[in-house]
Amino acid sequence: MQPRNMSMRGVVDLGAVKAASEAAAQRAARAASAPQAGADGAADAAGGFVVDLTEENFDSVLALSQQAPVVLEFSSQRSPHSVELGEVFDRLAAEFAGRFVLARLDIDATPQLAQELVVQAQVQGLPAAVAVIAGQLAPMFDRAAPQEEQLRQILDQLVAVGEQRFGLTGLPGAPGAAAPQGEADEDAEPAGDPLLAAAESALDAGDFAGAAQAYRNVISDYPAHTEAKLALAQVELILRTKDVDVDEVRRNAAERPTDVDAQTLAADVDLSGGNVEDAFGRLVETVRRTAGDDRNKARVHLLGLFDVIGLDDPRVVKARAALTSVLF
Where is the sequence biased in composition, kind Low complexity (predicted)? Predict the structure, then answer.
């Protein structure tokens, strides 16, 4: 089986499952003819909102997360707690009636698919479940299942997040579900990452310090979260430059060419003003002029500015080569 085409954002971006290769295209073709959740693939006992997740219907089931949260339940008949959890989930799926979709993954019946998802979702043991909201995966619980009332509250929160942040109203027939639309609203805001909701709310309120802390919290839990790292670097740049006197910063930098603090702040001002190459050139030159701790401080700051712009940017590539030349 070919590796599934999922981009990683610390949590797994399951919305990136698409035909980016011949294998992915073949999966999509199989998915197009596979039973849909809520139809033939669903469990009658849960009112048609439970589906057994397989390699063949993977893409089509996860596509339902654009209508309602999809809960991926990792299941095994060898785990009594997992079996008990499945019974609770079935009752709640019937109760919620299409406001979420339960996708049950039998790790014994589909070991290859299970292995992929266990690794990418960082599942440590059963019972376990993760949620997919508008294509974005977020953890629910792992190795310890909540009680039924606690699980009901978790699902209520998932449904609320889906409705409030992404406009998810449930599958057709669910209470409050919107009527199917022929075309998507072109002006609709694209779905975001639920893990970044707190940071985005802080940004909306103009609380840059709060946003920075929220991004740090995400990175603490998900060290590989690329978007959070990039956003944190950008917000920290704003915090460093938002109250400075630009003329004074530039004057101090001109008067003290080997003062690392003066040069790094001037580079921040350059970058925030759109003068990317000037910022990079200033710090490369500062690295060249300094030594010891000062040189390392300038180097580390420059690397941080690379993160703000993005490592694939041609200006970053050029400046990185210049830095290497100065250092070695």
Answer: 171-182
Q: How far apart are CA 250 and CA 241, in angstroms?
A: 12
Residue-by-residue DSSP string for 110-132: SHHHHHHHHHHTT--SSSEEEEE
Q: State how far the Cα of 263 lies from the Cα of 21, in Å rounded to an integer.
A: 46
pLDDT digits (tens, 9 = 90+) for 229-277: 888 988 999 999 988 999 999 999 999 999 999 999 999 999 988 899 9
Helix (H, G, I), strand (E, B) or coil at 99: coil
Q: Which tokens go with 299? A: 């180097």
pLDDT per residue as tens digits for the range 149-167: 999 988 988 888 888 877 8
pTM for this prediction: 0.46
Distance of CA 227 to the CA centre of its chain: 7
Six token digits for residue 282: 């200033």
Q: Is domain 244-327 given the CATH code 3.30.450.20 in the classification?
A: no
Q: Distance between CA 237 and CA 140 in Å, rounded? A: 33
| Rounded alpha-carbon distances, angstroms, from residue 136 to 19, 76, 108, 248, 310 | 18, 25, 25, 45, 22
Q: What is the DSSP string of 187-230?
A: TSPPP--GGGHHHHHHHHTT-HHHHHHHHHHHHHH-TT-HHHHH
